[in-house]
Design a protein that fits this description.
Helix content is 72%, strand content 1%. It has 469 residues and is mainly alpha-helical. Helix 3 crosses helix 7, helix 9 packs antiparallel against helix 13 and helix 9 packs antiparallel against helix 14. The protein starts with 5 loop residues before the first strand and ends in a 6-residue tail after the last strand.
């Protein structure tokens, strides 16, 4: 019935374990499909543009237009999620992404490069906007459905997303080799459109007092504490992506190895991220997330200084293939350790500053900041490394970046101590679990001791009942 609404807690209790897994599979499956085909032009578009005599500069602009629009649309996605239902924000962007991907195949019909570049640029921006909305909606839904396992499910979702981005160029290359430019876009577009159907089974979140939620969300975007938390996540992503464009020349110059060996090293790096993130998320949900943030902040600059290694440390460690593989493996472990707790810390910050209250509308905006930090850091990392590589060798640039990150680590440690003090000042006896937002319909009252008197045991989203697919 329209308007019928129940707490997610009661919905979750009526769902079987298999039902919860099915919903998680649908959400992450849509993420995987969307971002595989979002990243697929990376493998073949440079070759296609070269055949059309399109400059490499414009090729880079076309590939980068999607991630850039993704970054800027994330905060807008939170406001849309506070205005429209999550089902609408699943189906409309997914349908748009599928149609635009299919329409990409039609660009092969024009011989005018100016027309090709102009339309392709607009399509890539549209793909980035759709991808950003899908990402924020997916993460908001996962936080709502699994309120006591936020770090675990977001780490799993990030693993799926990273795997999709890595698999996209591989899939695109195969499709392009089989059927050319048209097939490389038409088939993925059809598959994206087909992924819309399972989205009907995802629970529908509701947001009461939407205008107030939008106003609070705008204030969240200006909160320096939350912005620093998002920046720290982006800074970790800078370290994860900085070495990617400059690793191949380094291994060829120092180890006399070809691009295949460099690709294997990067595979070890990304594989370490994908394997360690879910395990770290599980631990972070059960222990103090600030401890993981601090440990990561201490070890990340050390690991990065030894990737080259920094020539100042040549007496301690001689560059070798084993040394490079081990440091990339460790980097893939400590980066998710620094990123995964950030969402929980963001929730803590808002709750500590608002007497435990965390409405769904505000949570959507916090999730959007978290989602935007990943592509922002990746974009900054590869861009800065490309500029610096013209003036400094790999071992110097990575080592100096590690030294610079010491400042970020120091600020992060101070930040963690300050936030924990804020929590203690709010309520020294308040339970940490769960970190999910409270029902916007429920008033939170506090006794003279600071304990809540009428707040539900679990602070959960209200959601509509599952609709039959």
């Amino acid at each position: 019935m329209p308007g019928t609404c129940r707490h997610l807690e009661s919905v979750a209790h009526t769902m079987s374990r298999g039902g919860k897994i099915a919903i998680f599979t649908i959400i992450t499956g849509v993420l995987f499909c969307a971002f595989v085909f979002y990243s697929l032009p990376g493998a073949f578009l440079p070759l296609y543009d070269e055949d059309r005599n399109v400059s490499s500069t414009w090729t880079g602009v076309l590939i980068g237009a999607g991630p850039l629009s993704y970054i800027f649309v994330c905060p807008l996605s939170a406001l849309l999620l506070n205005t429209f239902s999550n089902k609408q924000l699943y189906m409309i962007p997914t349908t748009t992404l599928g149609l635009v991907t299919m329409m990409f195949s039609l660009l092969d019909l024009t011989d005018n490069n100016d027309v090709f570049v102009s339309i392709a640029f607009l399509m890539r921006i549209t793909q980035g906007i759709a991808g950003g909305i899908i990402s924020v909606t997916s993460f908001s839904a996962l936080v709502a459905i699994y309120p006591s396992s936020v770090a675990t499910v977001t780490a799993l979702a990030e693993t799926v997303l990273n795997g999709a981005l890595a698999a996209g160029p591989f899939v695109g290359g195969i499709l392009y080799a089989i059927g050319g430019f048209k097939l490389a876009f038409f088939i993925p577009g059809v598959l994206i459109l087909m992924s819309v159907l399972p989205e009907i089974a995802v629970p529908q979140l509701t947001t009461s007092n939407r205008s107030a939620g939008n106003l609070r969300s705008l204030k969240v975007l200006l909160d320096p504490w939350l912005l620093f938390a998002g920046w720290h996540c982006a800074a970790c992503q800078i370290l994860l992506n900085y070495h990617i464009p400059i690793l191949s020349p380094y291994v060829e110059r120092v180890f006399h190895k070809d691009v295949v060996w460099a690709g294997t090293a990067l595979l070890v790096n990304s594989g370490s991220v994908c394997l360690s993130a879910p395990f770290l998320g599980y631990l972070i949900d059960r222990y103090n997330p600030y401890m993981f943030l601090i440990v990561s902040a201490v070890f990340l600059p050390v690991v990065y200084m030894f990737i080259g290694p920094l020539p100042l440390f040549s007496a301690l460690l001689v560059p070798s293939q084993t040394q490079l593989m081990v440091t990339l493996l460790l980097l893939g472990f400590f980066v998710p350790m620094g990123c995964t707790p950030v969402l929980l810390v963001m929730f803590d910050i808002y709750r500590a500053k608002n007497k435990g209250d965390l409405p769904q509308g505000v949570t959507n905006c916090i999730v959007s900041l978290y989602c935007a930090s990943f592509p922002a850091g990746a974009f900054l990392g590869v861009t800065i490394s490309g500029i610096v590589a013209e003036y400094y060798y790999f071992e110097w640039s990575t080592g100096v970046l590690g030294i610079i990150f010491i400042v970020e680590s120091f600020l992060c440690i101070i930040f963690c101590v300050k936030v924990q003090r804020m929590k203690k000042n709010m309520d020294s006896c308040d339970e940490r679990v769960p970190f999910a937002p409270s029902s916007p319909n429920a008033e939170t009252k506090y006794s003279s001791t600071g304990q809540t008197t009428d707040q539900p045991k679990h602070n959960l989203y209200p959601v509509k009942e599952l609709e039959n697919a």
